[in-house]
Amino acid sequence: MKLLVCCLLAITCCVLANADNVERTMKLTEVLKELRQLNKSVEHNGVMLNTPTLDIEECCFLSTLECFKKMVPHLKTKQKKLQRKVIRNLSPLTFTGVDSCSREERENKVCQGCDSYPMKDSREFVQQLESLLQKAMTRLV
Ligand SMILES: *[C@@H]1O[C@H](CO)[C@@H](O)[C@H](O)[C@H]1NC(C)=O
Questions:
Q1: Residue 3: band (very low, low, confident or very high) from pLDDT cuts 50, 70, 90
Q2: How far is the CA of 5 from the centre of ligand 1 (A)?
Q3: Which of 7, 43, 89, 105 has the largest CB neighbor count within 10 A?
Q4: Is the CB of 130 under 6 A from ligand 1?
Q5: Residue whose CB lies within 8 A of the most ligand 1 atoms, among 36, 123, 132, for a mutation test
Q6: 121 membership: H or E segment, kind and range
Q7: pLDDT tens per residue, range 7-64
Q8: Ligand 1 pocket mutation, candidates 72, 126, 128, 130, criterion most atoms within 8 A of CB
Q9: 93 vs 3, 97, 100, CA distance in Å?
Q10: Domains in the chain, start-ordered, CATH in brackets?
């Protein structure tokens, strides 16, 4: 009997955790779609932006995300509404579960500053942000 309860609990847990991940993956897929849509409307006219590399150190994922988020408003587009939507969705909430660091661990970690990343043109920037989103999907825990 005890064993059965244990099994049921384990299964329930497993199913719930997966449902969580399905939801997160869907959210990330949505942001990815919005980003591609936004990209189509961007005038890639040589605007240069600090572009984080993706060899992200332990517990620095959100810091890297913050840097991308800070740069998106500089993309030249007439689709302001879509731009705002993308910015809003690049929130830590969208990326829950991408790393397993605690708040404390994050606070104690010194991550690379946004200004120290190389300047890339807007086309490369969007490309890199797309890669970040794809990476986030594979790293869901
Ligand atoms: C963004 O759009 C440009 C053309 O405007 C295209 O060359 C590039 O591949 C697009 N990038 C992504 C990530 O979709």
A1: confident
A2: 52
A3: 89
A4: yes
A5: 123
A6: strand 119-121
A7: 777 877 777 777 788 888 999 999 999 999 999 999 999 999 999 999 999 999 999 9
A8: 126
A9: 36, 9, 14
A10: 23-140 (1.20.1250.70)
Angle at the Cα of 83 (from 79 to 87), degrees rounded to 5?
175
Task: Label residue 141 by pLDDT band (50, 70, 90).
Answer: low
More confident residue, 108 or 6: 108
Q: How far is 32 from 124, CA to CA, in rounded Å?
A: 15
- Confirm or reject: Cβ of 123 under 6 Å from ligand 1: yes
Rounded to two decimals, the pTM is: 0.87
Tell me the average pLDDT of the chain. Answer: 92
Question: Mapping DSSP to helix (H, G, I), strand (E, B) and coil, where does residue 76 land?
Answer: coil
